[in-house]
Amino acid sequence: MLTRVRFTTAGESHGRGMLVILEGIPAGVRFAPRDLARDLGRRQLGHGRGGRMKIERDAGEILSGVRLGETLGSPLAIWIENRDHENWRTAMSVEPRPGASDEALRRVALPRPGHADLVGLLKYDRSDARDILERSSARETAARVAAGSAARKFLSELGIEVGSHVIRIGPVEAVPPHPLPAPLNDASDASDVRCLDEAAAGKMREAIDAAGSEGDTLGGVFEVVARGLPVGLGSHVAWDRRLDARLGAALLSIQAMKGVEVGLGFRAAERRGSDVHDEFDADPARTRSGGVRRRRNHAGGLEGGTTTGEPLVVRAAMKPLSSLTRPLDSVDLRTGAPAAAVRERSDVCAVPAAAVVGEAMVALVLADALVEKFGGDSLGETRRNLDAFLEKTSAAVPRSPS
Fold it and tell me: What pLDDT shows up at residue 59?
């Protein structure tokens, strides 16, 4: 599959910083440092975050691709400094440090169960798991959120909103309001667990605090919702063009994600078809869904790998983080003897922050799908192509006689 909007990240958790290069955003999208700083700041919040968030103050610096507050159509380069690097200059030195002790270099020989430490060390033929954990760290998601911030601005120029909220942390499940508030993030960001159910939010905080007091961690589930999408993004004709597959890959690429579902997801397997599929009504006012309204949205805005014009609803399940202050059993790779896993600074729970990363990945996939469908070197050209498409599709269903 040829991606039109694509990005790559570079950097290690305690290196000098994180760099992202984003290609494919059309010219003319309004994007300013304050947009970047807002989204990076949202990623750092949440009850249960660890000490690293007290050190870093992510704002990001736009190095290229923007002039006078608008994208140029050229690649964007965004730099996010790691303030904590000052304490890691020896351990993360680019130059060799002969004679430096294992302690000074912060070498790791005690891999953590559930982390990339051991498999990465074996795959890349390294003797120090520090070489693996620095890159596999979720610190890399700061770069993804930076790229997603630009993609989000492109989507918003076309009337599309992307937001998220937390529906589970550990054993506590929320009952979100229906319909969800709009804008969604204005409501969910008001909670330090990003939960729309106030009673559940209190129990989530209690569960996080209890796990932290016992040296443990908690995972959970978040939901990303995109509203204002037009029908027709993605395709049924090839496996790698199906939008649900592309969204699934994007969300599962986030560190610690173990499951993704769209709409009803796994719950659809428990029901009969008559209680799953969304029936249609003609509705000329629904221009973004081809003049058709779905009575429900169990499909989560996708049918046949293609957007329906209804809200896109996707969820991701995050496992508990593998860095525990009460370490699990491991093996000392120097001796083969049983040992406790290394203790690395970490969060008790990062589900609220992971939801912000999920927004970024969904925004990037949707931006790519929009450019794929409507093209355009400039925002104006993309918008004209979208408007022409909506005019055609909204007339596809005849108006019923009054």
Answer: 87
pLDDT value for 219: 97
Can you point out the beta strands (E) in 6-144? 6-10, 17-23, 61-64, 66-67, 70-71, 76-81
In a domain, 196, yes or no: yes
Residue of 191, 283, 296, 301 whose CA lies nearest to 243: 301
Q: How many domains does the chain have?
A: 1
pLDDT at 402: 58
Q: What pLDDT, on the 0 to 100 scale, is given for residue 165?
A: 98
- What token pair was written down for 64? 């290229």
- 253 lies in some domain: yes
What is the predicted pLDDT for the residue at 398? Answer: 79
402 found inside a domain: no
Query: In 3D, which of 316, 271, 278, 274 has the Cα closest to residue 297?
Result: 278
pLDDT for 394: 82
* Backbone Cα Rg of the chain: 23
- Alpha-carbon distances of 387 from 7, 136, 380, 393, rounded to whole Å: 27, 42, 10, 10
Domain presence at residue 365? yes
Report the 10 Å Cβ neighbour count for 330.
18
Read off the tokens for 330: 């491991």
Q: Return contacts of 339-343, CB within 8 angstroms, 24+ apart.
A: 339/110, 340/110, 341/110, 341/111, 341/112, 341/113, 342/108, 342/109, 342/110, 342/111, 342/112, 342/117, 342/129
**CATH number, position 68:** 3.60.150.10
Instruction: Tell me whether strands 338-340 and 302-303 are parallel, antiparallel or unpaired.
Output: unpaired
* Residue type for position 74: S
| Residue 275 token pair | 């209680």
pLDDT of residue 396: 76
Beta bridge partners of 374: none
Q: Which regions of the chain are under pLDDT 70? A: 1, 50-56, 400-402
Buried b (16+ CB within 10 A) or exposed e, 354-391: bbbbbbbbbbbbbbbbbbbbbebeebeebbeebeeebe
pLDDT at 1: 65
Range of the domain at 297: 6-394
pLDDT given for residue 53 in this prediction: 55
At residue 399, the pLDDT reads: 73
Q: Which residues neighbour 49 within 8 Å (Cβ) at sequence distance 6 or greater?
A: 347, 348, 349, 350, 353
Of 117, 116, 147, nearest to 256 by C-alpha is 116
